[in-house]
Amino acid sequence: MAAKVLECGYYWLSIYHDSNQMVKACDQFQRQGSISKRHERPIHFVMEIEIFDVWGIDFMGTFVSSCGMIYVLVVVDYVSKWVEAIALPNNEARSVTAFLKKNIFTRFGTPRAILSDGGSHFCNKAFTGLLEKYGVKHKVATPYHLQSCGQVEVSNWEIKSILAKTVNANRTDWSRKLDDALRAYHTAYKTPIGTSPYRAAVYKERMMFVHDKKILKREFKSGDLVLFFNSRLKLFPGKLKSKWSGPFKVVNVSPFGVVELASEDGLGTFKVNGQRVKHYLGTDGEKHLVEQLALKDGPCPTNE
């Protein structure tokens, strides 16, 4: 477009910018192409329970004494299946509270809730006082119903299974093998979550950073005109009809990338993902640009 204007002997300083804006405002031009991965919305964590929000806690033992240790305290994250465990000489409340403060609260943050059985090592003043201090809810499982703490029981069984394959014949070195067993557990593939606990716990933030770095930042606000990419529209091969419908007016934008649009009849609304919409410049913007071009100067002055 700019080249044709120059061929006609006209020129102004913003000719290339104006040409670009006029092409962008073309209705047919805006309705071409498909949606792009660069138009994806930023990743948001929308689960009701996030990683390290809810932990299950339980004791394993008593075992054969190993370096004075006869119990294993196990704490499991219900989302990532991440396990923290320690060998202990007793199952007293002070051992439990010390472990939670040092290994859970300071490393993974304060959880929303902790699930346990009704044992005296969990239902006592010291344990209750610690949770109340940090604002953590204590959920007690139904007695004689192991499914209430099913995730902890599954993790206990897996750790026991790993230890059974690595300890000596007398089974007196299990406390020294516990860290190796945890490493094997953390890096093993877990079918329910589709990955290992290590990847679920460590790679989530990294994946969000890499994803958001590649996408274009686009902001929508109420009143904007947008085109909607309707992937459900079935077209016969060879048809030149566009899958971009609209324009529609934006009614509301949620913090999780959902855009609410007014229907074409104006009587209702519908919600779509922000990746499927793009700003519409519209004919009003095109007319305004043409009016501006009409006010531009004529041919560029010569030195003659």
UniProtKB/TrEMBL annotation:
<dbReference type="InterPro" id="IPR001584">
    <property type="entry name" value="Integrase_cat-core"/>
</dbReference>
<dbReference type="InterPro" id="IPR036397">
    <property type="entry name" value="RNaseH_sf"/>
</dbReference>
<dbReference type="Pfam" id="PF00665">
    <property type="entry name" value="rve"/>
</dbReference>
<protein>
    <recommendedName>
        <fullName>Integrase catalytic domain-containing protein</fullName>
    </recommendedName>
</protein>
<dbReference type="InterPro" id="IPR052160">
    <property type="entry name" value="Gypsy_RT_Integrase-like"/>
</dbReference>
<feature type="domain" description="Integrase catalytic">
    <location>
        <begin position="38"/>
        <end position="205"/>
    </location>
</feature>
<dbReference type="GO" id="GO:0015074">
    <property type="term" value="P:DNA integration"/>
</dbReference>
<dbReference type="InterPro" id="IPR012337">
    <property type="entry name" value="RNaseH-like_sf"/>
</dbReference>
<dbReference type="GO" id="GO:0003676">
    <property type="term" value="F:nucleic acid binding"/>
</dbReference>
